[in-house]
Amino acid sequence: MPRIIVEVMPKPEILDPQGKAIASALPHLGFTGFSGVRQGKRFELAVDGEITDEILESARTAATEMLSNPVIEDVISVRVDDEDAA
Amino acid sequence: MSEQTVTDKEFNIDTVEHASTTPDTDLPWAELGLKSDEYDRIVEILGRRPTAAELAMYSVMWSEHCSYKSSKVHLRQFGEKVTEEMKKDLMVGIGENAGVTNLGDGWAVTFKIESHNHPSYVEPYQGAATGVGGIVRDIISMGARPVAVMDPLRFGDIDHPDTKRVLPGVVSGIGGYGNSLGLPNIGGEVVFDSVYQDNPLVNALAVGVMRHEDIRLANASGVGNKVVLFGARTGGDGIGGASVLASESFDDSKPSKRPAVQVGDPFAEKVLIECCLELFHAELVEGIQDLGAAGISCATSELASNGEGGMHVELRNVLLRDPSLTPGEILMSESQERMMAVVTPANAAEFERVMAKWEVEYSWLGEVTDTGRLIIEWDGETIVDVDPRTVAHDGPVYERPYHRPSWQDSLQADTFRSSQAGQNLPQTGQELGRALVDLMTSPNMADVSWITDQFDRFVGGNTALSQPDDSGVIRVDEETGLGVALSTDANARYAYLDPYTGAQLALAESYRNVATTGAIPMAVSDCLNFGSPEDPEVMWQFAEAVRGLADGCQQLGIPVTGGNVSLYNQTAGRAIHPTPVVGVLGKFDDVGRRTPSGYERWADGQAIYLLGVTADELDGSEFARGRGHLGGLPPAVDLEAEKKLGEILINASRDGMIDAAHDLSEGGLAAGLAEMSLRFGVGARVAVDGICERDGVDPFTALFSESQARALVALPRSEELRFTDMTSARGFAALRIGIVDATSGDLEVAGPFDGGSFTIGIDELREAWSAVIPSRFAGLGEATEAVRQEK
Question: What is the model's pTM?
Fold first, then answer.
């Protein structure tokens, strides 16, 4: 089934407590060499049938208005799932 | 996302030397919110133009929020109208992070209420969460362990779409932060009114306790002592306004405008609490200050001016989360979960050991001096050289013009009775019963437990009472049962009709709520939420409210120990109703003798007494709200009567005479009776005939008038004589109006009206009463849903 992938990240200047917690846990578990972690989220929007420009546009709107909180998050990408397109 | 290629030296540093040689450089003072005369004053103080970093400091510290420039001249009354008697238990007064009151047995308590209104509108979850975080840090910085929080909340119309966005976020944010900290949320308020549309009020109160010897103050004393910043790293949070500094004075190609909101991390704050308490117990800090509004600008200038007068700081030592921050931005950043302390060189190693134990990051910034100057360097180059007092304390003070609004007289002339001419008021038993149900299922009288159940009320195991009782009660000393009671109240409709009386009514209700549980009221903290001080009519409301509150505190004999002013609460030129939220703190020798707000099943047959007298006071009432009317004059205040009522309730609790007590406020006797029955699902049979006869009022007025200084109590028949002896000895009206009826499950009200009586099933009432809020908000947010599923 065709999918649209939406990726959202906390804005770079905003504190990311999850990322911070992971960053401090990494060396405790022996994973060294990482100086920082930021954690975002990925959405997979399934579509019945073909992904038209219209549906993609609707996904973009949903991404900025509903899937992300524009005050503290950025939408990084809204794209058609490549694996499926192949 | 663009690559983070900005390195930390790409911008030019505006040094003091540079500023002296470039007097004509244009600085973005207007964008930073300074007025031209304020900017001129800064130039005059410094004898040159400020550097960008100095401008950043002055602009945030001279803002309304930090300098109280419009409110100061009025707030002085809180200090002036204080008698020696009122000061006897006051250990630290207004001016520090929070006031401290002596509880006895070597214990002290500190509490304060603050606003986080605007951030909570922009980003409800984080705004409300960081509001809790900020007020908790104020309490820590006094040396206390925080023990509870409370949240007075005001939202727009319950059915407005934006309320559906704001309320669930705010509620989740408060729960998410407070619950994670392990602090019980013991009460507050929830009010819906369209005046708060686009301008919700999210106030937060925190209370902490400490031993006397643990009290800490915010001052940098001891020349040569070291200044340390610890806790979270500094990022670009909350410096939306400061971005003009970045774009106009420095590098134009910065990647993004700085966000105006902050994101909190409650787990970091929890570690900070424990870490600070260890520092206090080991006596490792000389002075301490939390970082809230205005961040490092505020902490350095306040610590320096409260101590030896000078401080020397290297700003490059600040640990950053975002290396592209400019010095001005670092000074203004409102990143959460940070503290600044002053430590003697001898204690530095031990301080570092405590930091390592709690895995808290820290950096030594500089030292205390006696030069009278706050010097801040950036890589050894001086970028700030100011007298810290001019930043922290000698900001502008405005005597804003104010006058009574032109519409105030016509508003006060528009009484509820005149508005209802030709309308039917409930008269028959059936109509009165219907009116009671309508009242209890209106948004502002409805059950708020859908909201408060998302907050942890009992964590810590010391909560003796919480919502829906009249006050939250927390045990302080587990051996003796010593504890405190807290209530916050405000009726903005009353304050709109008459701000002087309205502020006193808020004080009276809060005082009454504390006394109703049996605690002795001791201290006041206030959060004054108003519109724009530049509007003379709003300024009049503010001036009147402060005058009323200061006079009221003097009459009740309890001092204001601290608080907060929130101005500019208006949208599109329309100000909110004046909302002076008053928190009163009371003391219990033993929380075991607290009085709950309803009768329990075993109280079957106990006598119900109404204390106080009822007059025709329906203007501004909840019943009038139901009819869409707001006008006339608020109920009369009688603080002497409140004091007497308080003494009766406290003595009755101490001597074990009463088993339940509930104050009468919004919704009057009708709401009081309903709430007492709803508390434990136990009915009652009462008659209003005696009230009508004695006070010369009709049954409708007896039930719905909001006359003050009234309370309901339930007591065993064996105590009736002793109790009425006490009330008559004090000349206070007490009338037996009915009995507790644990068998019927009904609230039955009889009186001189058609039908003779009406009956309301408690279970049916509960069903409707508790459905009002969830029917609008349940299932709107992931977080709230998760909480509900866990239950």
Answer: 0.90
